[in-house]
Amino acid sequence: MKNFKIPLLPTLICSLFAGTLCFPKADLAAADDSVVRVFIFAGQSNMVGSDSKARDVQRFPPFAGLEKAQPGVRFSYSIGRQNKMLSEGWTDLQPVNNVIGPELSFARKVTAVAKAPLAIIKCAAGGTHLGGDWNPDEPIGFKMYPLALDLVRSSLEELDKQKVKYRLEGFMWHQGENDMFNKDYMPNYGKNLKNFFAKWRRDLKAPKLKFYVGELCTKTIWGMDLRPRMYAISQGQKAVTSADPMAEYVPTSHVGVEIGNPVGLHYHYGTLGQLQHGVNYADAYLRTIGKSSAVERKLKKWPYKKGSPVKLFVLAGHRNMEGERAFVQDLEQLKGKQGLLKDNASIAYKYSLGGGYKTSAGWEPLGLVDYYDTFGPELSFGHAMKSKVSGNLAIAKYTHSGSQIIDWTPEGSMAKDRHLYPRFIGFVKDSIKELEAKGHDVDLAGVFYHLGENDMSFHPYRKDAAARLQSIVKQSREDLGMPKLKWFVSQQPPTDVERLNQLDVVGEVAKVAAADPEIIHLKAFGLPAQEKRLVIRADGIVELGEFIAKGYLRKQ
């Protein structure tokens, strides 16, 4: 393994305690850019990077090259349970055993923005508990807490021997799936997490150590069949991070998830999700130090004459309406579609993506705004509509790719923090009010909802999909005061698996539409072949936008 050696750097106004550099002001942006920032990554399988593959990185253009080593970023690790993969000192940051972890994209994002060098210490093992394996007081099983503590201390001691000046900058934690299976660990997750933070700060003599806690991903199969248990863990995490000023809850339910067989649903993020998960951690850290890379996209000139009417089109949905695997780099290669890459300032666009993970700053020009170099059908939809519809049109898009249809229903589920319906209706009302405040008469021309993809792969959710859709439509009309509000419901071919095909979900949705003349069922069955179940890539997302636009135009 390669050891890094750098010259002795100027003395800092800090103190060295037992191998851990502490800083007096709790200012993570504090300024000496020659000091190495050390980050700890720890947790279970979705921190390991389970079911990811280094060879698949090339399939995701925004992350090209992350299958290779990153010279200059130090990496020390112990990964796995019985058969541990060990760096045995510091090496270049790189995939371990061809597995992709969030540390790879985290490091690239941070080093592109911040000048200081990075070092990452990673200790993770699948199937481990906070209540047991990671318990600081009475570790059992694989005894991860003492193992991780020893790894951190020995790694920092090696930096001391090399006379490398450093400071402990942050602790990235992703764990909790296994605690939800234990009747004692699940209700006590918050208490155990608080103790976990306290013992790390004590044992590393770093009282200001900042923790970043990754949300358990609701897009996985566990986010559906174990919804109450996932909710219990999330409540524990949120309680601790909201009470601790040096801890932050990092949403991850909007990231990609591995596509499994036979139905498509999976337990792990996989390659794409891991890469996006690392970006989430990086963004959270960069916000902490005041180096957020958000770009303002303001309309330089309001596109509509004062007093003129505006047709408002609302787009809503899950993975494919958000555009999970539709990459801008692939759009650049689509013949005749390059015009979609440019902002269209003639269409005012407002959005809330990932259930509020990213929102527009008021109204922006229609264009590329998603958080991972991805895009949704709004681009081609807007282009198609603008060429055919006279007058002013505006688009408001509300999506959460980690949601299921139950989250959109008026009653929601026991997972109260996943209830999207009130937020969605509020978003629509606000969009109308904002346009009216600018002097426009607003015609809500329709809601364009792409039916939940994950629901089609899980029998209980597929069975109830049509009825849940019907309840959303009915209540939305009441709450918006629009009894004739049109809903254009697009549906891609549902998961084709024998046991699921016993439920004719297409037929059930068609029945709902047949009974309601203001529900237009758009069967999006002619899109380009999908590479994977459930998710549509760039060419299909472009065609989806054009398809739903044609569905609207046929009804005019």
Task: Set down the secondary structure blueprint.
Layout (H helix, E strand, L loop, with lengths): L14 E3 L2 E3 L13 E8 L1 H4 L21 E10 L5 E2 L4 E3 L8 H12 L4 E7 L19 H18 L4 E9 L14 H15 L7 E4 L7 H4 L1 H17 L3 E4 L19 H19 L21 E8 L1 H4 L5 H4 L12 E10 L4 E2 L4 E3 L11 H11 L3 E8 L5 H4 L12 H17 L4 E9 L8 H22 L6 E5 L6 H4 L3 H10 L4 E5 L14 H17 L2
Parallel strand pairs: 3-7, 3-8, 4-7, 8-9, 9-10, 11-15, 11-16, 12-15, 16-17, 17-18
Antiparallel strand pairs: 1-2, 4-5, 4-6, 12-13, 12-14
CATH fold field value of the largest domain: Rossmann fold
Outline: globular
CATH architecture of the largest domain: 3-Layer(aba) Sandwich
In percent terms, what proportion of residues is strand? Answer: 15-25%
Low-confidence spans = 1-26
Task: Enumerate how many helices there are, as a single number.
Answer: 16
- Overall domain count: 2
Question: Alpha-carbon distance between the termini?
Answer: 68 Å
Please provide the count of β strands: 18
Helix content: 25-40%
Rg = 25 Å
The whole-number mean of residue pLDDT values reads 94
CATH class descriptor name of the largest domain: Alpha Beta
| CATH-level-4 superfamily name of the largest domain | SGNH hydrolase
Sheet having the most strands: 8 strands, mixed
Q: SS-based structural class?
A: alpha/beta
